[in-house]
Design a protein that fits this description.
The protein is an alpha+beta fold and 494 residues long. It contains twelve helices and 25 strands.
C-alpha cells in the first residue's frame, strides 16, 4: 500500500498537476464499456460539487455547463468532449477485477503506465483535461459545455444516442487524438459484423486418445484502427493457420477455440484444444514446431515476443466430443481466410488507411460458434462491401451473419475557422506545422456532427502509445504540451 501511495505521489507531482490529479481520481473508478454506472456517478458528482448545471441523458451522456470567464463572455460557446469508458485488457497472470479495482499506475522513463493492464489514457486524459478546466478559476475560456459520452469503445452508444439540440456549442474540441503533432479533422466509420453457427459434435473411437491445448500468446496487440497499418499479428487468424496445418499432418480433431476479446483490439491471445491419436503425436509435434519457427520469422519485427505453446490436457473420464469433420474444415478455413488488416489504402490521402477489418473474437464452445469482426472505412460503400464480402464467405461455411453498431465516418473539412485557428496557433506556439489529417479510428465527431449541424470540430491530444493493450502509456511532457496548447486555443477562440 505504501508503495502504491508513493507511486501515486510521483504522478501527482507532475505538471500540469490539475490534470494528473483528475486523471488519478478517474483511474480509481472502474469504467469498462457498458458498465459505466460508477464513472457516470463520478462525473455527475464533479459537476454538482462545483455548483454547475449537470445533466445526464437516457444513454448515459453527461453534460456539464460552465459560464465563460469575464474576458470571454462574448466568445462563441464551445463543447469540450471526451468519452468516459475504457478498453479493459490485462496480461496473463495479472489479477484485476474490472468492476471493482482502480488502475495501478507508475512512471517509466517519462511515460505513465499501468501494471499489467490497459492504462485508460484513451480517453481518460481527455476526461482529465475537461475536469481540470471545470475546476479551474484561472484559465480563460468561452461559454463551456463539457460532454462526457458513454460506451464509445464498444458501440458509440453515447454519440449515437445524442439528441439533436442537446448541445449549443458552435465549436467542438474532441480530446481523443493520440499524437501531439496531429490535428484530426476526419475519421473512418465502422460496422460490427457478427457471424453465428450451430456446431454439430460427434463421439469418436480412438485407440490411444490424447488431448492437447495450443496457445498463441505474446503478440503485441493494439488499437484495431490506429495500429492496423503496422502489420501486427492477429491471434485468431494465426491459430486457425496453425490448426489447418496440424489437421493435415496429424489428423487433429477440433474440440474448441477461444481467441480475442474486444472488437476494437487486435487479438493478442488465442487457444484451442484438439484430440488426436497418440500414434500421430510425433507428426503433430513436428508440425507445430515448424509452424512456430515459420511464424516467429514472419513476426520477428512486429511481434518479437510471439510464441506458440502446447501442453497435454488430462482426459478425466470420457473422450471429449469433437466437431463434425466437415464443419471443422469449414470453420478453420473461414477463420484463416477471413480478411485482416488493410483492405485498401486511401487513393486521396497519402498514408491513410481507407478500409480495414479486424477478426476480433472467435469462440467455438459447446454447440455454438461465433466470429466477430469490426470493419472500418472512410468510404461508406467500401465499408459495406467489405462487410458483405465477409458475410458471403461466412454463409458458404454455414454461418448466419448480422450487422450492427453502424456509425458514419467524419468527412474532413480542412478550411473551417476552428481548423485554421488550431493550425495557426500550433505554428505560433511550437514553431512547427502540425499534421492536419484524418485517422483510421472511430471518433465520435462524425456522429455528433450529424446531430449538431454546422458545428465545427477538431480532435487533438497528447502522445499515447499501445492503446487498447496492456502496453498502453501516455507521455508526461506531451501532456504538458497538449494542455498548454488547449489553454491557448480556449484563450483565442472568438
Amino acid at each position: 500500500m505504501n508503495q502504491k501511495i508513493e507511486l501515486m505521489n510521483d504522478i501527482l507531482n507532475q505538471e500540469p498537476r490539475d490534470v494528473w490529479k483528475a486523471f488519478s481520481e478517474l483511474n480509481e473508478v472502474p469504467r469498462p464499456s457498458k458498465r459505466e454506472e460508477k464513472v457516470q456517478a463520478f462525473a455527475m458528482e464533479i459537476g454538482r460539487s462545483l455548483g454547475l448545471p449537470t445533466l445526464r441523458d437516457e444513454v448515459g451522456n453527461i453534460k456539464i455547463t460552465k459560464p465563460a470567464t469575464e474576458d470571454k463572455k462574448n466568445a462563441s460557446p464551445i463543447v469540450v468532449q471526451a468519452h468516459l469508458d475504457m478498453v479493459c485488457q490485462k496480461n496473463d497472470g495479472t489479477i484485476h477485477n474490472w468492476d471493482e479495482d482502480g488502475i495501478s499506475m507508475f512512471i517509466d522513463n517519462g511515460w505513465v503506465k499501468a501494471r499489467g493492464t490497459t492504462l485508460g489514457a484513451d480517453n481518460g486524459i481527455g476526461v482529465a483535461f475537461a475536469i481540470a478546466l471545470l475546476r479551474s478559476k484561472n484559465y480563460s475560456h468561452p461559454p463551456l459545455e463539457v460532454l462526457f459520452t458513454s460506451d464509445e469503445e464498444t458501440g458509440m452508444t453515447g454519440a449515437l444516442g445524442l439528441k439533436q439540440g442537446w448541445l449549443n456549442g458552435k465549436y467542438l474540441l474532441n480530446i481523443d487524438t493520440e499524437d501531439d503533432k496531429e490535428l484530426t479533422i476526419g475519421c473512418a466509420g465502422g460496422i460490427d459484423v457478427s457471424s453465428f453457427m450451430e456446431v454439430n459434435r460427434r463421439n469418436v473411437l480412438i485407440e490411444e486418445p490424447v488431448v492437447y491445448e495450443i496457445l498463441i500468446s505474446g503478440l503485441t496487440g493494439g488499437h484495431s484502427g490506429m495500429d492496423i497499418h503496422l502489420g501486427l499479428g492477429n491471434a485468431n487468424v494465426l491459430l486457425a493457420r496453425v490448426l489447418r496445418e496440424i489437421e493435415k499432418e496429424s489428423c487433429a480433431l477440433l474440440i474448441d477455440f477461444d481467441g480475442g476479446n474486444l472488437r476494437n483490439a487486435i487479438p493478442r491471445e488465442a487457444n484451442s484444444k484438439i484430440l488426436l491419436d497418440k500414434s500421430h503425436l510425433e507428426s503433430f509435434t513436428t508440425c507445430i514446431n515448424m509452424q512456430a519457427k515459420e511464424l516467429k520469422g514472419e513476426l520477428k519485427t512486429t511481434d518479437p515476443n510471439f510464441r506458440i505453446t502446447f501442453s497435454e490436457v488430462p482426459i478425466k473420464e470420457d473422450i471429449p466430443e469433437v466437431i463434425d469433420s466437415e464443419q471443422q474444415q469449414k470453420l478453420i478455413s473461414v477463420i484463416a481466410g477471413c480478411p485482416i488488416g488493410i483492405i485498401r489504402m486511401s487513393p486521396d490521402v497519402m498514408g491513410l488507411v481507407q478500409t480495414s477489418n479486424n477478426v476480433a473474437r472467435v469462440k467455438i464452445i459447446g454447440n455454438e460458434a461465433e466470429i466477430l469482426c469490426l470493419t472500418r472505412s472512410s468510404s461508406e460503400s467500401e465499408k459495406m462491401d467489405c462487410a458483405n464480402r465477409i458475410a458471403g464467405n461466412m454463409k458458404m461455411a454455414g454461418f448466419e451473419t448480422s450487422f450492427s453498431g453502424n456509425y458514419p465516418g467524419w468527412e474532413p473539412s480542412p478550411s473551417g475557422y476552428l481548423a485554421d485557428l488550431m493550425k495557426n496557433t500550433y505554428i505560433e506556439v511550437f514553431d512547427e506545422k502540425p499534421n492536419v489529417n484524418a485517422c483510421h479510428a472511430g471518433l465520435e465527431c462524425g456522429i455528433i456532427g450529424e446531430r449538431s449541424p454546422g458545428m465545427e470540430m477538431t480532435s487533438f491530444g497528447p502522445n499515447i502509445r499501445g492503446a487498447h493493450s496492456p502496453d498502453e502509456r501516455v507521455e508526461i511532457k506531451s501532456v504538458q504540451k497538449s494542455w498548454m496548447y488547449f489553454l491557448e486555443i480556449l484563450k483565442r477562440i472568438k
